[in-house]
Design goal:
Elements: H1 2-6, E1 12-16, H2 21-32, E2 36-40, H3 44-55, E3 59-62, H4 70-83, E4 89-92, H5 107-133, E5 142-147, H6 161-181, E6 186-193, H7 199-208, H8 210-214, H9 225-236, E7 247-250, H10 254-257
Parallel strand pairs: 1-2, 1-4, 2-3, 4-5, 5-6, 6-7
Helix pairs in contact: 2-9, 4-5, 5-6
Bound molecules: NADP nicotinamide-adenine-dinucleotide phosphate.
Length: 258
C-alpha cells in the first residue's frame, strides 16, 4: 500500500540546484526511493561531489549549467533530452537571494534574482514540456514542483526586495502554469519552505542568532531535509496525482497560523 501511494521508483526526476541545501535533500530522498535523478548547479566540482555522494544510494547524474542564462537552460534541456525519452518530475529548486538597503539596492540584484528564480523556472518548463508530455498520463501525470518560499506570502525581516517579490511571482506563475498544463496531464505545484539551514540562510542565522530566527516559527525548529524530501515525494507520487496549482507551506506553521 505504501509503495502504491508514495512510490517513485523508476521515475526520471530533475532537481535544479541539487548540489547542496534543499535541492540535495530532495534529490537524496528520490534517489533513496529508487528514482533516476539528474541534478544541476553551476559549480561542476560541487555537482560531481553530490553525484558521488548520492550514487551510494542509487542512480544520480550531475549536469552542470547556469540556469540564470538561456544558454545554460538550453544545454541542460538538451542533455536530458539526449539521455531520456521522458521526464516524470521537474523540480525547479535553484534559487538566488540578494539583500541590500532600499537606498542601495542595485538593478543587478533584481536581474540576478529574477533571471534565475522566475525566468529560469519558466524557461526550463518551456524547454522541458515536450519531455514531460511523454511521461504524462491521466492516472500518473507528469509533475512540475517549484520551490517558492514563505517570503512570497509575508514580509521578511531583511531587505530582500527582489527575492520576496520573485517568490510571490513563482507562486502565481505556478498557478498560471497549472491551469495551462492540466489538459496535458501535467501538474504544477509549489512547496514554500520556511527556514532551512543552508548556505542561503547562513548569514541570517549568524547575524540574528538561532533563537531570534526561530521566534516566529510555531513548531520552533528549522526545516529538516526529510521535511523537504517528504513533501516533494508526496507531490510526485500517486498520492499527489490529483493535486495541482497548490502552494504547500512546509514551515512549521509560520505562514499558516500567525
Ligand atoms: N534556505 C531557506 O531557508 C529557504 C527558505 C525558503 C525557500 N528557499 C528556496 O529553496 C531553494 C534552495 O535554496 P537553498 O537554501 O538550498 O539554497 P543554497 O544552499 O544556496 O542552494 C542553491 C542551489 O542552487 C544552485 N544555483 C544557484 N544559482 C544557480 C544558477 N544560476 N544555475 C544553476 N544552479 C544554481 C546552487 O549551486 P551553484 O552555486 O553551484 O550554482 C545550489 O545547488 C531556493 O529556491 C530558495 O529560494 C530556501
Amino acid at each position: 500500500m505504501l509503495e502504491e501511494l508514495f512510490g517513485v521508483a523508476g521515475k526520471v526526476v530533475l532537481v535544479t540546484g541539487g548540489s547542496r541545501g534543499i535541492g540535495l535533500a530532495i534529490a537524496e530522498g528520490f534517489v533513496r526511493c529508487g528514482a533516476r535523478v539528474y541534478l544541476c548547479s553551476r559549480d561542476a566540482e560541487a555537482c560531481a561531489l553530490a553525484e558521488k555522494e548520492l550514487s551510494q544510494y542509487g542512480e544520480a547524474h550531475a549536469i552542470p549549467a547556469d540556469l540564470g542564462t538561456s544558454e545554460g537552460r538550453r544545454s541542460l534541456a538538451d542533455a536530458i533530452t539526449a539521455r531520456e525519452d521522458r521526464l516524470d518530475v521537474l523540480i525547479n529548486n535553484a534559487g538566488a537571494i540578494w539583500a541590500e538597503t532600499l537606498a542601495d539596492y542595485p538593478e543587478s540584484g533584481w536581474d540576478k534574482v529574477f533571471d534565475l528564480n522566475v525566468k529560469g523556472s519558466f524557461f526550463l518548463v518551456q524547454a522541458l514540456v515536450p519531455l514531460l508530455r511523454k511521461a504524462a498520463t491521466a492516472h500518473d501525470p507528469a509533475r512540475i514542483i517549484n520551490i517558492g518560499s514563505i517570503d512570497g506570502f509575508h514580509v521578511p525581516h531583511h531587505e530582500t526586495y527582489a527575492y520576496s517579490s520573485s517568490k510571490a511571482a513563482v507562486h502565481q506563475l505556478s498557478r498560471h502554469l497549472a491551469a495551462q498544463l492540466a489538459p496535458e496531464k501535467i501538474t504544477v505545484n509549489v512547496i514554500a519552505p520556511g527556514m532551512f539551514q543552508s548556505k542561503m540562510l547562513k548569514g541570517t542565522v549568524e547575524r540574528r542568532g538561532e533563537e531570534a530566527v526561530l521566534a516566529p516559527v510555531p513548531l520552533k525548529r528549522f526545516v529538516e531535509p526529510a521535511d523537504m524530501a517528504g513533501a516533494a515525494i508526496y507531490l510526485a507520487s500517486h498520492a499527489g496525482s490529483y493535486v495541482t496549482g497548490a502552494i504547500l507551506p512546509v514551515d512549521g506553521g509560520t505562514a499558516t497560523t500567525l
